[in-house]
Write the structure tokens for this entry.
Amino acid sequence: MSDSPPGLTVSLWRGAQEGRYVTYKVPLRASQTVLDVVTFVQRHLDPTLAYRFACRVGVCGSCAMMVNGRPRWTCRTHVAKVSAGGRIEIGPLENLPVIKDLATDMRPFFEKWRQAKGSFVPSKTRDDPIETITPGSAARLAADAAIECINCGVCYSACDTVRWNEDYLGPAALNRAWSLVNDERDAGNAARLQAVAGSGGCQLCHSHQSCQEYCPQALNPTRSIAGLKRRVTRAYLSGDLKP
Amino acid sequence: MSLRLYIWQRLTAALMAPLVLVHVAVIFYASRKGLSAADILGRTRGSILWASFYGAFVAAVAIHASIGLRNVLIEWSPLRERPAAMFSIAFGLLLLLLGLRAVAAVVLS
């Protein structure tokens, strides 16, 4: 029997859009996360490895990567859960351009968030009284169900429609639009419904539900997109929307 | 896919759902009762009801399938939007032509 500590064989994507998987040996530790593994490689084996992280505790949404072909927050994924036979393959998020190694260019993701009118448009000034929102109203419950997104890009990376159609706005942007559509304080819905019913809009979703399957926050963007489909269809049929 | 096409595809799907059920029921009825071709033609020839039923079915299929094919081509083939749309329109017209020809064959005496 060998005296060396048990090890993990890790394949990491190296390069940019073109590149290859390079294998490293990393010691196994108790309660080790996939982010710990990547950090070990960068600190001890190859300092040129590029990756992105910030909070390490599932708050910032910046460390998402493909782990064994599935998009995950690496900081909240334990090695014990994903290392089949002592091996893990870690790559950059799919459906986004790769800058270097495990770091993707998130600009298309956030640009689509902007295109879907994902910013709150105030309907009042600071001089107006604070609007009373009933927590149990149907609109507020729908907004609350979609609001905990931290824009990690996991759903965008998992989405087949994004993969097949580069114009598609994607689950995160549309989920954000749905939370604002249901925000009674927001005044931007005319432009927002127009935006989410455009050529890359909600009607392109095939309801494969990968977004809700992979969302680390357990959100359901497919349900939000279905809500948008109903809303834009009603608006179109009533003449309020001219796509 | 534009919102307009999306709505057309959903509307034609909603129309086809009951039409498919009736169509399947008709097939079961005809085969269980052992109706011959002459028996069937005897019921369909000159029937405005069957002409409208299958005429609407054919129109809905042609619209629904061509929009679906357009989406498949845009997502899964190298074709861009315009050529995919042209191909799909041609496919829809072919379905319409073949379908209406079949309807005419069983309805017109």
